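Hey,

Quick one before I head out. I ran the complex with flavin-adenine dinucleotide overnight. Inputs first:
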Amino acid sequence: METAILPIGQARAAAPILPARDKGGGKGGVMAGLMHRVAERGRARLRLTVDGVEIEALEGDTLLTALLTATARLRESEFGDGARAGFCLMGACQDCWVWTEAGERLRACSTPAVAGLRLVTGAAPWP
Amino acid sequence: MAVIVVGAGPAGTRAAARLVEAGLRPILLDEGSRQGGQIYRRQPENFTRPPAALYGSEAGKATALHRDFAALRPHIDYRPETLAWGARPGELLTLHGETATALRYDALILATGATDRVMPVPGWTLPGAYTLGAAQIALKAQACAIGRRPVFFGTGPLLYLVAWQYRKAGVEVAAVLDTSPFAARLRALPLLAARPGVLLAGLRYTAALLRAGVRVESGITPLAVEGEGGRVAAFRWRDRRGREQALATDAVGMGYGLRSETQLADLLKCRFAFDPVARQWLPELDAEGRSSVPGVYLAGDGALVRGADAAELAGRLAACALLRDAGHPVDPLETAHLRAGLRGMARFRRGLETAFPWPGAQAAALPDATIICRCEAVTAGDIRHAAAALDAPEVNRAKQLMRPGMGRCQGRVCGLAAAEVLAAARGVPVRAAGRLRGAAPVKPLPVATRMPEETP
Ligand SMILES: Cc1cc2nc3c(=O)[nH]c(=O)nc-3n(C[C@H](O)[C@H](O)[C@H](O)COP(=O)(O)OP(=O)(O)OC[C@H]3O[C@@H](n4cnc5c(N)ncnc54)[C@H](O)[C@@H]3O)c2cc1C
Ligand code: FES
């Protein structure tokens, strides 16, 4: 279940594209997402880039959904206690911040996913 | 007269509607992008599930609230995606996008709702561990499950409701583990009978889970969420007979009832009192929703967790109180009727707290290494150290020393548990551990925030 995270800047056109739909099983594959879609799978698709890897999400997804259906973390705790992937999903805990490659901070559970966003989930400075 | 209502859930929506009936045009603002609040939270516009799939037995009420809001909208100044992050007398500080604005008010209704009440457990920061509320939001607003075979633990009606909603959505539920003993539910029956319909619905969810073969246990003690490869892999607990149990799982949903969002009332210096039923400090309010500060009214779960139906009544009642205080005629029969409706809700609330008590005592048993404050990774041991060696008598002092509750969430998640850890370490009742004080901004602002221009 190890996630294949490419360092920033290594994204290539040939980077693997992860499916927005679950292919079932949840095991194997490049990355196994934490979250699983149970309905509403027929929405328009969009693509964003996470740690240099392109992922596919669906229109109407929050950033949190977009990332966690494909991967298993949003950020690293700046206190060295491991990865975090949000907790409350309602804008209360502030545990789901992600950074854009440009250094902008976004609260993943309350920010809609938009095509072309480039995000990083590795250690980033807390401004 | 400038009136602002904060929060567009059932309480805020009903409050705004009553103000409009009296000829006012209030500002109604909400941090969220769509009206509805928590229970009647809406899915994004391009989702297609019908209300019955989203709200179950509450679909009728949800649709009514959404429809009434649509009719109300032309008559109010509705501001979605607007956070109220600070307040001072006569002025509310808001944020929309990256623009901060100071809004003047003559009267303010705070209908800010609640968040999950959480007791930490070792491993609860692992990816895959969420609140029960989060598990429900994932399903309701994003059509996602937090895992393929989640364990739900904690206590309260949401525990059974969320588990049942997951089952209904076709998700396999590994177990539903309640910290409350079954006997507590029997003790609470006379109080819960104040709302037989709600009581029955609760029993139905549990029966349906059992019928579906879901493992349901009472009287458990959570021991740890265990991880592997940086995500949840198992949950360990002690059953009611004291035997250790474990289940492999890819996700946990945890929660112990709700806690009110009271930061804005705190910033406005509303008086707080310790509520022995909820074991929380709550803003004082009179029977109609007046706070101790003239012109500031409180309604819904943000003042006292009594549920959605009570929130609708309390919102309307607070608006009536505001109108009467401002010299508008209000039919005494209307307020009497609303107050009578709320009395049964108050009885039911006592029933819920009796049936599903906050397990404050668990805090004392948490291993020192357990993270309490997720924001700054402050552990139970750190707080105990502050309590003993540094002689911190209450949470604000401990916070200065050790920083629990100093993080980005302002103690929303850890505040109650930190107080329990501190009180237990000092051998005092939790009310003596005090309460964490709110500070502006109540939620982090973007770095690029442009500070207030005055606007009317
Ligand atoms: C996650 C969750 C799930 C729940 N699920 C159920 C359920 O399934 N069934 C049930 O019976 N009850 C449920 N409850 C309880 C139920 O939500 C409440 O009883 C009901 O919604 C209370 O209505 P309210 O208007 O008081 O608050 P809410 O409905 O919570 O509305 C409060 C609103 O205020 C807004 N707000 C808060 N602070 C600010 C601020 N500073 N600035 C701007 N806006 C702000 C919020 O965005 C929110 O929209 C749930 C509660 C939670 C927290
Ligand atoms: S998950 Fe808690 S703020 Fe986003």
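Residues A 90; B 6-12, 29-32, 37-39, 83-84, 111-115, 133, 136-137, 158, 161, 258, 261, 264, 300-302, 307-308, 311, 442 surround flavin-adenine dinucleotide (ligand 1) (CB under 6 Å).

Talk tomorrow,
K.
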